[in-house]
Protein 1
Amino acid sequence: MTTITPSSLKSAVTPLASGRIFNFSAGPGCLPEEVLKQVQADCFNIAGSGIGILEHSHRGKVFDKVLAEAFEDFRAISNLPKNYQVLFLTGGATTQNYMVPLNLKSYSETADYVTTGYWAEKALEHAKVYGTVTEAATSKDKNHSYIPSDAQIKHSPKAAYLHYCSNNTIFGTEWHELDAAGNNTWRHRVPTAPAGVPIVCDMSSDIYARPIDFTKFAMVYAGAQKNLGAAGTTLVVIRDDMLEKKPTDKDGSAREIPWLLQYRTFAKDESRPNTPPVFAIYICGQVFKWIRKQAEGGRSCLDVIGERNIRKAGLVYSVLDSSKFYKGHAHPTARSLMNLTFKCPTPELDDKFCKESTAAGLDGMKGHRSTGGMRASVYNAMPEAGCKALADFMREFERKNG
Ligand code: PMP
């Protein structure tokens, strides 16, 4: 086993002026450097309190302020209407695979799932514990390289909800609106659902990557460890009427939902019915402040971030489009802004690419075990310089090995 020490790392890679390297990990992913610096300081002594954030009571004044600001900043980023609640939960996005059907559908009802990748398939599989679920559309026939059109989604009569995953972290596809000519506009596409069917979305890997209208959803959830902060909390945005659902069980009786698995418990008590993941919430709060600061020249922070993400991903996709060496996984109309997936002509060259890119200070690009190849995750905190360095590396690697 090779032991990685700071000095062996240093000799292996080209560090940035800060001593850090470009981190293309799929999650936990890179965080904004200015956030990390603030976190360092606040771990020792936050807000002049003489106590670090890790040591404060979750009911004390310092954390009251951290939490209030996190809610306020999150809401401000997307102008979230008052009839939506923001919750910080635990158990990862995966726990939502159970909490969604447990809270939002009776055993006798069905719910529709569009399975466009690994996580969407897991959501469907786990929901089966709570009765019937229906696969309303899938992209499995082409190894999840595209996103089904609205016409391909077969809605069940009276589904309790429609579930989809807006960005497929592993396969590198994302839901985009297309223009009349069928070109990608990069705007978020929400599938249409029959009137009154609530839409639930797993936005773990692309929340706040571009402007988002939460009023199209009944509920959105996102593990924090990609675009929102650190691992340890899952953010939920839920419409008030969803909190009032009273699902029934297999025998028709009112379902007893454990107190800490009810969304309303968290809505009633500002996400702290018990000790919440204080540190993870605090980091989300810092990232929300960073997101708000991205607003410039009269454009909203999400407009600026969205445009930057299109430019960033474009640097890499333009290499794929002009290459006979690399092959992208996603169909161009479904390419992700966050997870860019591609392969070299052979698995041996993929391995070589991963080794050499890591040595060049471009870390974490080995594709998921289910797809192979490479995956460059370029979440909001990845600077444009990182994508430029990757595009340059790709061109040079092709020149030497093509
Ligand atoms: N959904 C998506 C889209 C994901 O990318 C992930 C994790 N990468 C999950 C769900 C599962 O998240 P967690 O590990 O927080 O349970």
Protein 2
Amino acid sequence: MTQVIPATLIPGDGIGPEIVDATLSALDALAAPFQWDHQIAGLGGVQLAGDPLPQATLDSIRRTRLALKGPLETPSGGGYRSSNVRLREEFKLYANLRPALTIVPGGRYDKIDLVVVRENLEGLYIGHEHYVQIDDDPHAVAMATGINTRAGGQRLLEFAFEHAIATGRKKITIVHKANIMKALTGIFKETAERLYEEKYKGRIEMDTIIVDACAMKLVLNPWQFDVLVTTNLFGDILSDLVAGLVGGLGMAPGANIGADAAIFEAVHGSAPDIAGKGIANPIALMLAAAMMLDHVKLTDKSARLRHAIDATLNVDMVRTGDLGGTASTGAFTKALVSRIKNG
Ligand code: NAI
């Protein structure tokens, strides 16, 4: 009998509970052996426990070291700090892995197979920001500090190289802005070049590119790239760009991998504009669940899940509205579960 795998489940806000339910149906159909510990965070955490990241949720992830998470709402401007960013810090989730693979053919860009590896803890996301008052304007000046460390960059780069080699990738492209932010992003480029010479030369190709040129080339000819590795802010932006190449946020999964835990989620947010309508596309979270199955080495189940998603979309032609179809979240999930069970 397969051993049970304890894991934390956070339904999240907005469309979170709808896409988490759909994903659980798929995992149940696969007989995935996760033993879920249900916890709350985000707006749900504030409403039910007075805290966007309750202690019980942190304790659960500390125990299971594995979580599947729906999107968490973060107020813009003021309000509480992002629970996502806090989770990354708390569990040192230094690598954010975001694959983008074409599943629905015939779109504006076909046959895309890219991976963005984003540094998740440093850079301009460390939250050292403040305003300076001048005369009677309290927001006259805004300041932010970015911090990138050699050790932090090296840890992420080693993860990226090892992952790329283990998954048969051919080329890593280091994305930076070292012509302007010479220290802040120069250290990342320099660390990559040194690491490549010392450890990875001959095992995989590596080149470097400035982020603005990278954005343009991704739009003109994305097939020239394979694995993009970059610092926090650039990774955030480029991974959404890359998600757009494969049909939008509804198709983009993400994994936050770290020293103390791994948390799997969709790249998209809580989509408050469509929450509760039963029309959200659950595929991004399902693909995140497939990455979670890979992480615990249940690769036969992850392959079955990916195959069933492909067949439901392209053979049964059942698609949600964001993909041009008319299926509800429930109808898509029902068709997918039937594909998982019947092949
Ligand atoms: P969003 O990703 O929630 O939505 C952007 C657009 O994409 C919306 O029109 C939405 O309806 C659509 N969309 C997103 N996911 C979809 C899906 N699965 N199926 C169909 N359509 C989908 O971004 P937005 O509106 O900027 O953020 C909403 C909230 O989510 C904010 O509070 C933000 O902080 C939070 N957020 C949380 C993330 C996380 O927990 N990892 C990531 C990004 C945003």
